[in-house]
Write a structure and sequence with these properties.
This protein is of the alpha/beta class and about 550 residues long. It contains 19 helices and 17 strands. Helix content is about 35%, strand content about 15%. A hairpin with a 2-residue loop joins strand 3 and strand 4.
């Protein structure tokens, strides 16, 4: 095998695995200046010489008008020449065959030249047959995807995983998803594929039914306290947002002592935890009790509250994951101890408590969510930059006209967007004016809430844009009731207790007619009179936990210097 000058008219192009012939002009300039640095590799076929390697160089010298060109003549038939062509153009030598060119070459080797998969393995194309099939499967992908693999924007290994998805619609979703990612890996691509497949199956499952709202009430609002959230099964709520009462003497917590306040928390907080699903979030907005000393008739003292929530929730495997400080940005306050004047004594300066806490707690466990829902629900990068800080500067509601402690809408908006998915159930267990439900609905979630104090019903209706005529009305059927199971009967009694602001210890007796079909009006309850002493063996009552969306000192014109 030597070098020989061969008349250019006796040379013809042969098979080459290379599909991309870019860089021809650069090669032309090099050959004009330096000459042909590497001879063509050819094989003799009758009266002509067929190129094994060097098609692009041959085209250039032909354009330059050469009459003859140096060639190395290889003693090989067409089948062997195809393999040699691959070797001389392989990535090991020239790094210029892209994955699609390699796949096309393997296809030609099998279909045109008759190589078996084992032959290809023996020649070193791969270490196992699955790799051969993976490379061939790239050719089953859409042409635009093949182009991205050839260009390197999608790796061949990612291409293998995509090609393994047989459903064309799902395959398209995978491609769109990974193309939009700034940073990705093969592992992430595999996870995307798995989650998208799960999302297809997820859509085929029967949708979970929303809780049934009692007739006549505002849709999504339950007018009883949240110590018994009977409308929800345990571990079914993805996100609970709540601002429990503060124990500072707002209009709905008059005469509630600190001892009663703690008992309230002990009654309500564990119930929230039981209803929270594994992997779900509980966001609690609260403040410390800054007038604790005044209420206890002692020197000024602050009672911190965060520890109580942790102590009550940790046994339920609900752990504090993050803390946000809500900076209210107030500059006016009616507290004399925070003002500065001629009578202010040195060392007696007090801080303006214009902040509250937001505890973000998560229940142990992992929540499986379809990947397309994950992507659809993610906050934007700009939102992340604004919300990642531990201090949230959000103005409070300045005029608490309808309710003494209303949330600013921005607060639940951030929490709902960060800790729930589109379509999720979001529950406020101390609803107040209804802000959480309003924001949840605006964000494509299903909002629900508990409010014990029925005097705020008009406030909630106003905020949600509901008129009296829009409410559900019970259908009355004459002389007919509904069959009652034991569970239905117990629920009816529970509703009657809530409506009358009573507890089981207030019941003297219950009378019902002996019949299979029973109407609610036929249930008669004798209540304990207020001046009667309850049975000491009965259950102990505690003060009810009331709503405080947002504890805020009343404003005056006293400005803090």
């Amino acid at each position: 095998m030597g070098v020989k000058n061969i008349n250019i008219n006796l040379i013809v192009e042969g098979y080459s695995p290379r599909q991309n012939y870019k860089g021809k002009e650069e090669l032309k300039g090099s050959i004009e200046k330096e000459g042909l640095l590497e001879p063509l590799l050819v094989r003799k076929d009758g009266n002509v010489y067929v190129i094994i390697a060097g098609n692009r160089r041959f085209r250039v010298v032909k354009e330059l008008g050469w009459k003859a060109v140096e060639c190395i003549i290889e003693d090989a038939d067409e089948k062997a020449a195809a393999h040699l062509s691959y070797l001389t153009n392989s990535e090991d030598l020239r790094n210029n065959l892209n994955p699609i060119e390699v796949a096309l070459h393997l296809k030609e080797m099998r279909e045109k030249f008759g190589y078996s998969v084992q032959d290809l393995l023996d020649l070193g194309y791969a270490k196992d047959d699955q790799t051969i099939y993976n490379k061939l499967n790239l050719l089953k992908l859409p042409e635009d995807v093949q182009e991205k693999i050839a260009e390197g924007t999608i790796t061949p290994t990612e291409g293998y995983r995509i090609a393994a998805v047989k459903d064309s619609d799902l395959q398209a979703k995978v491609i769109d998803t990974i193309s939009g990612l700034k940073r990705r890996s093969v592992r992430k691509t595999e996870r995307i594929i798995k989650n998208l497949i799960d999302s297809v199956n997820y859509g085929k499952e029967a949708p979970d039914q929303p809780p049934q709202v009692p007739e006549g009430d505002i849709p999504g609002v339950f007018f009883h306290d949240s110590s018994h959230m009977r409308e929800f099964e345990d571990e079914t709520i993805p996100l609970i947002i709540v601002s429990p009462n503060y124990g500072v003497g707002l209009e709905y917590e008059k005469e509630v002592s600190f001892k009663d306040h703690k008992k309230d928390l002990e009654k309500y907080v564990p119930e929230w935890g039981r209803k929270l699903m594994p992997g779900g979030y509980l966001c609690i907005n609260f403040g410390d009790i800054h007038n604790f000393g005044t209420k206890q008739e002692t020197e000024p003292e602050i009672q911190v509250m965060g520890q109580f929530f942790q102590e009550l929730l940790r046994p339920l495997s609900i752990r504090l994951r993050d803390i946000k400080i809500w900076d209210k940005g107030m500059t006016f306050v009616n507290n004399r101890q925070v003002s500065f004047n001629d009578d202010t004594k040195h060392t007696s300066y007090r801080s303006l408590h214009n902040f509250e806490y937001i505890y973000i707690l998560k229940k142990d466990g992992k929540r499986e969510v379809p990947y397309d829902l994950e992507l659809k629900s993610r906050i934007s990068e700009q939102e992340w930059k604004e919300w990642v800080t531990g201090i949230w500067r959000i103005d409070p509601v300045r005029r608490q006209k309808d309710h003494p402690a209303q949330f600013p809408e921005e607060l639940p908006r951030r929490l709902i967007k960060m800790y729930s998915y589109e379509g999720d159930i979001v529950v406020d267990t101390a609803l107040g004016s209804g802000t959480t439900i309003k924001v949840a609905l605006e964000l494509g979630r299903r909002g629900y809430g508990y409010e014990r104090d029925t005097r705020y019903k008009p406030v909630i209706m106003k905020k949600l844009g509901i008129k009296e005529e829009d409410l559900k009305k019970p259908e009355v059927e004459e002389d007919r009731g509904t069959p009652h199971t034991i569970n239905e009967f117990a629920k009816t009694i529970g509703d009657m207790l809530a409506e009358n602001n009573k507890t089981p210890k207030d019941i003297v007796s219950v009378r019902v007619p002996l019949k299979s079909v029973l109407s609610r009006d036929e249930i008669e309850i004798d209540w304990l009179n207020d001046d009667e002493e309850p049975d000491p063996s009965g259950p102990t009552g505690t003060s009810e936990l009331l709503r405080a969306d947002d504890y805020e000192n009343e404003m005056t014109s006293q400005e803090v210097s």
